[in-house]
Amino acid sequence: MKLGLGIDTGGTYTDAVLMDLETGAIIEKSKSLTTHSDLVVGITKSIEGLSHSHFEKVKFTSVSTTLATNTTLEGKGYPCGLILIGYSISSDLPVSDILEIRGGHDADGNELDDPLKDLEALSEFIQSTKNKVASYAVSAFFSVRNPEHELLIKEKIAEMTDLPIVCGHELSRALGVYERTLTAVLNAQLIPVTNQFVRSVLSVMKDKNIDSNLMIMKCDGSLVNIEEALLRPVESIFSGPAASLVGASHLTGDKTCVTIDVGGTSTDISMIVDGIPNISDTGATVGGWKTMVRAIQMNTSALGGDSHVWACQGLNIGPRRVVPISLAAVEHPDLVEKMKTMDIPSERVLDQVVQGTSFFSKLPESSRLSDITLSAYEQSVLDAVSDIHETPSTIYEISDKLGDHPLMFTNILDSLVLKRCVIQIGFTPTDALHVLGKYSNWDSEAAAAGAKILADYLALSPEEFCRRVQLSVSEKMAADLISFFAPYLKPEDVNRLVLNSPFTKFKITTPVILIGAPVRAYSDDFSDLLDAEVILPDFYDVGNAVGALVGDVIFRTNVLIRPKSVGSLTYVAFDDTGRYEFESDEEAVLKSEEKIRELVYAHMGKYGLSESSVKIEIKREDIQAGFSTEHPLEIKLSGIGVGTPRKVDSDSAKRSNLAAAESLNL
Question: pTM for the complete prediction?
Answer without folding.
Answer: 0.82
